[in-house]
Amino acid sequence: MLKEIHQIRLRISKTQSIEKLDMLYKIMFKKEEAVYEQCGYPDLFLHKACHDEFIRTITSAQDQIRTHKLTRKDLLEYIKLWTKRHEEVNDRISMAFVRTKQLIGETS
Q1: pLDDT > 80? residue 44
Q2: Rounded to the nearest 10 degrees, what angle do helices 18-39 and 44-66 cross at?
Q3: What residues have CB less than 8 Å from 88, skipping those under 6 apart?
Q4: Distance CA 45, CA 48 (A)
Q5: Count of CB atoms situated within 10 Å of the CB of 22
Q6: Which distant-in-sequence residues (6+ apart) come within 8 Å of 13 by Cβ?
Q7: How many helices (H) and strands (E) in the chain?
Q8: Could you give the CA distance from residue 80 to residue 88 in angstroms, rounded to a whole number?
Q9: Which ranges in the chain belong to alpha helices (H)?
Q10: pTM: predicted TM-score of the whole model, two decimal places
């Protein structure tokens, strides 16, 4: 599953379509959350809430783009910055927990 998540992240980094990014993030978040649940990650609820808020923001921003209140470029920049911060902080912590569980053999 971690390899699938990595492949989706690579696709996200090369995608410029906001609709496709929205879809890819939803798929990736579901896979990440399944891994965290399988490992018993104690902060899964908070991590999932962060994902959910990001998706709500993207959905709202798409509406703002349609009404010309926000530019596509601004949204793509927001996505890029959010992703960088989320991966450097949130995902680093949660993935360290997953790797530890895998090393001690508590998950596959």
Answers
A1: yes
A2: 170
A3: none
A4: 5
A5: 17
A6: none
A7: 5, 0
A8: 12
A9: 2-14, 18-39, 44-66, 72-86, 92-103
A10: 0.85
Residue 79 in tokens: 């996505």
How far is it, in rounded angstroms, from Cα 47 to Cα 93?
A: 10
In degrees, rounded to 5, the angle at the alpha carbon of residue 99 between the alpha carbons of residues 6 and 43 is 90
Q: Residue 21 in contact with residue 12, Cβ under 8 Å?
A: yes
> Which tokens go with 35?
């891994």
The identity of residue 69, as a single letter, is: K
Is 43 a residue whose pLDDT tops 90?
Answer: yes
3-state helix, strand, coil split of the chain in percent (to 5) is 85, 0, 15
51-to-24, 56, 89, 90 alpha-carbon distances in Å: 12, 9, 13, 10
Work out the end-to-end distance of the chain between its first and last CA atoms, rounded to an integer number of angstroms.
10
For the chain, give every domain's residue range: 2-103
pLDDT of residue 107 exceeding 70, the answer is no
